[in-house]
Amino acid sequence: MINLRLYSSVSHVTTPIFYPNAKPHLGHLYSSLLCDVYHRWMQLNNAKSLFTTGTDEHGLKIQIESERQKYKTPLDFVNKLYPEFIRLDNFYNISFTNFIRTTNSDHIANVTKLWELCNKNKLIYKGTHKGWYSISDETFYPESKVIKNPNEPNKFINTESQNEVVYQSETNYFFKLSQFQDRLIKFFEENPHFIQPRSKHHQLLNYLKSTELKDLSISRPISRLNWGVKVPNDDSQIIYVWFDALTNYITSIGGISNVNSLEWKNTSHVIGKDIMKFHSIYWPCFLWGAELPLPRRIIIHNHWISNGMKMSKSIGNVVEPIEIGKKYGTDIIRWYVLENSNLEDDSNFVEQDVAHLKELFIGKWGNLINRCCGTKFNISRSVQRFHSENLSQEYNEIIKDDNLRTEVSNLLNSLKELKIVMKEAIENFDYAQILKLIWPIINHTNAIVQISKPWERPELEQDLIIFTCIEVCRILAILCQPIIPNISEKFLDRIDVLPSKRSLSFAEIGSDNNYGSNSNSKGRELPIS
Ligand SMILES: Nc1ncnc2c1ncn2[C@@H]1O[C@H](COP(=O)(O)OP(=O)(O)OP(=O)(O)O)[C@@H](O)[C@H]1O
């Protein structure tokens, strides 16, 4: 049991678990970043926050790739590749709290248990399955979605993902998915926020209303697929990789016995649109089939594109995130990726824009802090003098210039507005909206230093202007910790903000009455270079 008195709330966010069939790329980093910012924000807000990621290690795609690369067993193959995902996370400060590997024994026990619960409820039966299977997508496609491959006339592809399909006929276990069609439609209609963004909710609802759900094959004969969890009481069949993979979300909260927990009720699954059918249709039905509650919601994001196609391990059209992070800095990439994407649209990676962003960080934001830390000023004295939540009287009395007073008041209003927008935007994973508001605030603060020339003003006026500008820098650095943890830390260190005063409650004007003690000394390093 969680002691809620210690926390303002409880939250759990998950990335998809990724196939370790090759090294991760920018797309994987994107899903992880969306979750990391949410998780860090929750923690900054004093919430108990869990963050699950991991690797989906079973299935035909892994089996085939491991054979192709001449590994002794698929386990040897995934053992070699799963650390690459952890390496990427560590490199980018992705602060997951739980890493699930589907080859772990506790996970396998959960998959077996979920199967048994669905079976007990008479939702699983044995039958013959004929159809077009895509190994790459690990799914069957209906005849209507299969065409000849225009480049290789002897082969076939499906029209959804364009990946190759092969015809298979075999004995499988089936899940009675068709029974859940009306319940799904009703649930989506009554819970329009379960699938976000709204466009995806409508897309799924339209699909469900126009397409008859067929029962789903949820096992493969061991002769075709041997790398996976065995069907309980039938050693000749292996459980379908999606039934296995989706269960990881329950493994991460401590297993099926914990699904009535607050963590589960507050779980947000973040996924790419390529896997929305599995999460939005199959997953709720598997859970209902076992009489288990659903998570809070599913957040679906679009893709990073390269050469006009989804960036993908199998195609190889990828941006290598560690290389690019070494070149520009991980926080610059974190910011770039989040500022140049949104859930609704596909995004293109443009390296020139990353270089430009880095210049902005150094030339605008870093420079603003350096200016305030100049030896002509005294941040500590300014803070001692003016730390107060309401400075309007001081501004009226000390700053005689009407124009400057108006500029300062507008600046402080945009800072307040940012905090309000941030709360809602983070809840909706809409980070670009926040980041676009930050540069105008920095530019505005720089302009105020430029036009007011505090170095030419009497001490009291100078201190008030410096106090205002450095408060903007301090508050922005506190608010941006979830997005750029390293750079924010450097900024806050540079102005000597105590580690105990970096939580969200200190992101208010005047809330820290004691910082900047040594900031205007000569010889202090630049915050970023
Ligand atoms: N181009 C992309 N843009 C955004 N997210 C992506 C992208 N590629 C993968 N992802 C993330 O990874 C998930 C899929 O993981 P997976 O390991 O199957 O990646 P993949 O590169 O598409 O793999 P493969 O090419 O082997 O099919 C997506 O749902 C999404 O969360």
UniProtKB/TrEMBL annotation:
<keyword id="KW-0030">Aminoacyl-tRNA synthetase</keyword>
<dbReference type="InterPro" id="IPR001412">
    <property type="entry name" value="aa-tRNA-synth_I_CS"/>
</dbReference>
<dbReference type="GO" id="GO:0004825">
    <property type="term" value="F:methionine-tRNA ligase activity"/>
</dbReference>
<keyword id="KW-0436">Ligase</keyword>
<dbReference type="InterPro" id="IPR023457">
    <property type="entry name" value="Met-tRNA_synth_2"/>
</dbReference>
<feature type="domain" description="Methionyl/Leucyl tRNA synthetase">
    <location>
        <begin position="13"/>
        <end position="147"/>
    </location>
</feature>
<dbReference type="GO" id="GO:0005739">
    <property type="term" value="C:mitochondrion"/>
</dbReference>
<dbReference type="InterPro" id="IPR014758">
    <property type="entry name" value="Met-tRNA_synth"/>
</dbReference>
<keyword id="KW-0648">Protein biosynthesis</keyword>
<keyword id="KW-0547">Nucleotide-binding</keyword>
<keyword id="KW-0067">ATP-binding</keyword>
<dbReference type="Pfam" id="PF09334">
    <property type="entry name" value="tRNA-synt_1g"/>
</dbReference>
<dbReference type="InterPro" id="IPR015413">
    <property type="entry name" value="Methionyl/Leucyl_tRNA_Synth"/>
</dbReference>
<dbReference type="InterPro" id="IPR009080">
    <property type="entry name" value="tRNAsynth_Ia_anticodon-bd"/>
</dbReference>
<feature type="domain" description="Methionyl/Valyl/Leucyl/Isoleucyl-tRNA synthetase anticodon-binding">
    <location>
        <begin position="411"/>
        <end position="508"/>
    </location>
</feature>
<protein>
    <recommendedName>
        <fullName>Methionine--tRNA ligase, mitochondrial</fullName>
        <ecNumber>6.1.1.10</ecNumber>
    </recommendedName>
</protein>
<dbReference type="Pfam" id="PF08264">
    <property type="entry name" value="Anticodon_1"/>
</dbReference>
<dbReference type="InterPro" id="IPR014729">
    <property type="entry name" value="Rossmann-like_a/b/a_fold"/>
</dbReference>
<dbReference type="GO" id="GO:0005524">
    <property type="term" value="F:ATP binding"/>
</dbReference>
<dbReference type="InterPro" id="IPR033911">
    <property type="entry name" value="MetRS_core"/>
</dbReference>
<dbReference type="GO" id="GO:0006431">
    <property type="term" value="P:methionyl-tRNA aminoacylation"/>
</dbReference>
<dbReference type="InterPro" id="IPR013155">
    <property type="entry name" value="M/V/L/I-tRNA-synth_anticd-bd"/>
</dbReference>
<comment type="similarity">
    <text>Belongs to the class-I aminoacyl-tRNA synthetase family.</text>
</comment>
<feature type="domain" description="Methionyl/Leucyl tRNA synthetase">
    <location>
        <begin position="152"/>
        <end position="372"/>
    </location>
</feature>
